[in-house]
Please model this.
Amino acid sequence: MTRLPRPISLLRDATLPDGTVVDVVLAGELVEAVVPAGTGRAPEGAAADATLDLAGHLLLTAPAEPHAHLDKALSWDAIRPPMGDLELAISSWRAYAATMTVDDVADRARRQLLAMLAQGTTSVRTHVDVLLGDAPTRGAEALVRVRDELRGLVDVEIVALASQDSPDADVEAVLDLGVDLVGGAPHLSRDPHRDLHRLLDLAERRGVGVDLHTDESLDGPDTLLELAARVAGWTTNVTAGHCVRLGSMPADRRDEVVAAVVASRIGVVANPITNLYLQGWEAPVATPRGLTAVRELLTAGARLAAGADNVRDPFNPLGRSDALETAMLLVTAGHLTIDEAWHAVSDGAREVMGLPRAGVVPGARAELLAVRASSLAEAVASAPADRVVLHGGRLVARSVVTRETAEPPRPHAAPRHAAERPALAPSTDRTLTETR
Ligand SMILES: [Zn+2]
Model:
């Protein structure tokens, strides 16, 4: 039986995205050296199980998830909501949220967080609703509990997601539980700019960062420029999620907003799977893509990340909250290169979240994902389940898949003519081929 978490001091024969094969020496939570394969040495006295053989694995910076909703995750089957747009999702969710308990939320959040960890995500920023009604902190209590339980395996940051109907006192009660940032969705408010400034005032008063759901519609309010103007010069972390409106506005206006975003150092988080699902229901012909202007943001030098957002809840019935899935959607729907897409869910996401540098670089934190693939394109295309996950230099998850594929049956009698032989000759005498 595998002992996890387990400190690791040497990774052998790992393939990097540029194709080189290396050994990686770790020292505590950090990468110490990256050397040619076969030349890495574990430190004297290191345990035998502190070396991992990663032959056949691609070694990457572990993904970070910059935009999750662990309080909502995996509720689809219990709610059975109608499919539809953001408004419909919100009403389905609110009806359910009124009935849920702290234990319900914690159970779903724990399951989802462990699934994300097994897929390689070692840092997660999750929103939690400031709930309406008499017990507004139920969701936050659950997520704080799960964050504390899984400390040491995965880092979790929590954002208090306030609606326009959440009184300041309720938002502060959620923050008082140990929630990290102020959030909200001003574009859904009756007075978006007023709600935006209320939330920013609150964050300033508390001295915490801000992560807002921003302009999550194709043609609704446009608050990003106002946000950029207000936070210019702030030293706390400021993140704008979704920014769907930015992807659909006229180019000259878009360029003005993008320039302000770059100048203010706001991090932008695109959430392709949820916004491809939620937006565009009213346009059955040439359905628009609910995506922010990812190319223009990158070209202008903005800090860009991408997240998986909702997973199997009224806001998105499907998905795995897997960074490889998010990267694939950025390529397919956002036309980023595979390298750009992977950056947005790993190093770029860490940057937007304000986390220390990680990856296969001396001095960086050993937040690492090894996935059974020979190239980044193969990894993003096939999202192999075989993965090895390190958090702070410790092995925290490992998945090994055994696949058996039957060989085509052999003909009972030899064909009469050579030309009738099957084109696909069995390559082995075994009846089953094992692939690992
Ligand atoms: Zn969200």
Confidence is low (pLDDT under 50) at residues 422-436. The two ends are 19 Å apart (CA to CA). The CA atoms of residues 63 and 341 lie 11 Å apart.
